[in-house]
Amino acid sequence: MRQDDGSSPIEGQGVDINITAIERNLRLYGLPAFLLLLGLAGVALIDPSAPPASQIEQVIAPIKRIVFLGAAALAAVSAVWCLWRAGLEYRWSRGALDGGCHNCSGPMRHFDGRYGPYSKCLMCESKRKGWH
Questions:
Q1: Are 43 and 75 spatial neighbours (Cβ–Cβ below 8 Å)?
Q2: CA distances (Å), 107 to each of 41, 98, 125, in order?
Q3: Which of 4, 68, 78, 90 is deepest in the core (most CB within 10 A)?
Q4: What pTM, to 2 d.p., does this model score?
Q5: Residues 126 and 85 in one domain
């Protein structure tokens, strides 16, 4: 069912899904968000101030405190990582980020692969030989 202007009625209702943006967001925020959730789960599940009821819990109490602090540190570092990536995406979307990608001017990650060094864009995932 087409409208008079040639567009389908679904397009005007906000159903357009940008798969590229979804892939980019998964690439940018997938690992930091997973680590953030892992750290928050560790903070929520471990109670370092609970009084030990048995001798085993007295031995485990210092380990619980260390694991709690590690989970809190993991949550804090991954939250900062998410904010850093959000800042990169914001600058890239406004055109203020001058990256090395020849497709979208996005920031590049550098790798040493089987056939030598190459760069991979964080935004569009295009690859380029050498470091840029």
A1: yes
A2: 31, 7, 10
A3: 78
A4: 0.70
A5: no
